[in-house]
Write a structure and sequence with these properties.
Strand content of chain B: under 5%
Bound molecules: flavin-adenine dinucleotide, iron/sulfur cluster
Number of domains of chain B: 1
Shape of chain A: elongated
Structural class of chain A: alpha/beta
Number of domains of chain A: 2
CATH class of the largest domain in chain A: Alpha Beta
Oligomer: heterodimer
Distance between the termini of chain A: 12 Å
Order of helices and strands of chain B: EHHHHHHH
Largest sheet of chain B: none
CATH architecture of the largest domain in chain A: 3-Layer(bba) Sandwich
Strand order of the largest sheet of chain A: 5-2-1-9-20
CATH superfamily of chain B: Alpha-helical ferredoxin
Structural class of chain B: mainly alpha
Largest interface: A-B, 17 and 21 residues
CATH class of chain B: Mainly Alpha
Helix content of chain B: 40-55%
Order of helices and strands of chain A: EHEEEHEEEEEEEHEHEHEEEEEEHEH
Number of strands of chain A: 20
CATH topology of chain B: Fumarate Reductase Iron-sulfur Protein, Chain B, domain 2
Number of strands of chain B: 1
CATH superfamily of the largest domain in chain A: FAD/NAD(P)-binding domain
Helix content of chain A: 25-40%
């Protein structure tokens, strides 16, 4: 009988693993909470560092899943699991021979950082809001007019002990550079300021895009974290920071404030991990067996990981892991 | 005659970007946009001949200019000896010596404060 692999999460990681498993002659079952496949990438507009439309990537994966007739259960939330079964929120149990946990990450809720006024003041957005607006073709205007000044704040909900998120989310620096360039292109008259603690440009072409943002888009990068945002009488937002490279306090008002929100661990990671006897890292993400040859393996036989369930990752890294996890599952099932 | 109590209201140290004028900084950036790609590494200051002998800090100086802060610039920039060592070290390939000359040209008319 064809071996069944239970994949929790139908984001890009889950879909990519399923495609590889189907091609290896196995029977993957994708269990997805939402009504459609795709995960977070569904909500992104153009991807760093090449401005590639995100929709194309999701569409291609969905088409590959459909073309192979892969079994997909949408609207199904996994609440407990082990290598042989997944229990759903509706009480059903799905059985299989191995499992891949690919349930991804959760966006940091910017409202928790009350000092930045997200949800309180008009014209404070998150990076996810900007993606959704760009996707919908609605631009963040101020009373119908183009914004004259825009500030981006890096590390919102990352590298911050105050909100128990100690890790770096990795993708937000490059997302901030990309979105600054996109807004500059749409509002050429606007002055754009990125407030950062460190600029982390780890991927191919990222540093080059950063330099282009400085040189061609004239984005101002100010090293210093905004301490607070407050509304002004004329409906703008006043921000305060230290310009640490000059050692002086700095303040200004802006028309838009964009918070580059981090990637945090899912709330249900702990429960899923406990049900299967898995370990979580201090960050709340799942802990792989090691960070090298065992980076897509768990400490439990027959359970594997793919994508951002173990840490913040880019799409490319996520897809690579999905293929590696599928290969490991196939090797594991061969001997049973 | 006003009484001198020996203290006054100290000038705010805050860089106020709502008030600062950017046109002088833009005059430099317009001719040498590469300055905007500065990553604040401090190599120019570390190698600076003038900085070894005085409190001249070239990185801080051109950063302040880009923020629209010009107080004391004239005196400061004149400490530079135009030796060009900073240009040899800048990892972003900025013609830093050229920046000094542009600052002098665009801000030379400012009276020392
Ligand atoms: C603002 C922002 C912009 C980004 N832009 C880029 C970019 O331009 N380029 C790039 O390379 N990367 C980008 N990324 C990173 C990218 O979003 C991730 O790499 C990608 O989403 C990871 O995919 P995933 O499948 O691991 O997780 P997810 O996308 O989170 O998918 C997980 C899936 O699992 C489902 N799920 C979760 N829990 C359960 C459960 N209990 N039961 C059933 N299903 C469940 C979810 O509904 C979801 O569909 C960006 C990230 C952010 C935050
Ligand atoms: S990638 Fe940049 S913005 Fe994101 S957490 Fe790391 S340092 Fe902060
Ligand atoms: S050219 Fe001027 S700023 Fe550059 S190293 Fe020489 S003295 Fe310093
Ligand atoms: S050496 Fe170049 S990049 Fe470094 S601080 Fe000086 S001007 Fe900026």
């Amino acid at each position: 009988m064809t071996k069944r692999i239970l994949i929790i999460g139908g984001g890009i990681a889950g879909m990519r693993s399923a495609v590889s498993l189907a091609d290896a002659g196995l029977h993957p079952v994708v269990i997805e909470r939402e009504a459609v496949l795709g995960g977070k990438v569904r909500n992104w507009h153009a991807l760093f560092p090449t401005f590639t439309p995100a929709a194309g990537i999701v569409e291609e994966l969905r088409a590959a899943v459909a073309a192979r007739g892969i079994e997909v259960l949408t609207g199904c939330t996994a609440v407990r699991f082990d290598a042989r079964r997944v229990e759903l929120a509706d009480g059903r149990t799905i059985e299989g021979d191995a499992a891949i946990l690919a349930s991804g990450f959760t966006l940091f809720d910017a409202g928790i950082k009350e000092e930045y006024g997200y949800g309180l003041y008009e014209h404070v957005y998150t990076s996810a809001d900007i993606e959704r607006m760009l996707l919908a073709g609605t631009l963040p205007t101020v009373n119908g007019a183009a914004p004259r000044r825009i500030a981006f704040l890096h590390c919102v909900g990352s590298r911050d002990e105050k909100v128990c998120q100690k890790h770096c989310s990795r993708v937000c620096c490059i997302t901030g550079v990309k979105q600054a360039m996109e807004l500059k292109q749409r509002f050429p008259g606007a002055e754009i300021f990125n407030f950062y603690m460190d600029i982390r440009m780890f991927g191919p072409g990222y540093e080059e895009l950063y330099r282009e943002a400085q040189l061609r888009s004239n984005i101002h990068f100010i090293r210093g974290r905004i301490s607070e945002a407050a509304p002004t009488f004329d409906g703008r937002i006043q921000i305060k920071a230290e310009d640490t490279l000059t050692g002086r306090p700095l303040r200004m008002s802006v028309d838009l404030l964009v918070l580059l929100v981090g990637m945090r661990a899912n709330d249900d990671n702990a429960a899923l991990a406990a049900s299967a006897g898995l370990e979580t890292a201090p960050s709340g993400f799942l802990a792989p067996r090691d960070l090298f040859l065992g980076n897509i393996r768990s400490s439990v036989e027959g359970i594997f990981y793919a994508g951002t369930i173990t840490a913040p990752k880019t799409i490319g890294e996520t897809l690579n892991e999905a293929v590696a996890a599928a290969e490991a599952v196939a090797a594991y099932l061969k001997n049973r | 005659m006003a009484l001198d109590f020996g203290y006054g209201i100290s000038k705010p140290r805050t860089i106020d970007l709502d008030r600062n004028e950017f046109y002088k900084g833009n005059a430099v950036l317009g001719k040498m946009p590469e300055l905007q790609s500065c990553i604040g590494c401090g190599s120019c200051t570390a190698t600076c001949t003038a900085g070894a002998l005085t409190d001249f800090n070239f990185r801080r100086l051109h950063t302040l200019i880009r923020r629209g802060e010009f107080k004391g610039i004239y005196d400061e920039i004149n400490k530079c000896m135009l030796c060009g060592k900073c240009r040899l070290t800048c990892p972003r390939g900025i013609n830093t010596r050229g920046v000094v000359q542009l600052i002098k040209r665009n801000m030379g008319y400012l009276q020392p404060e």
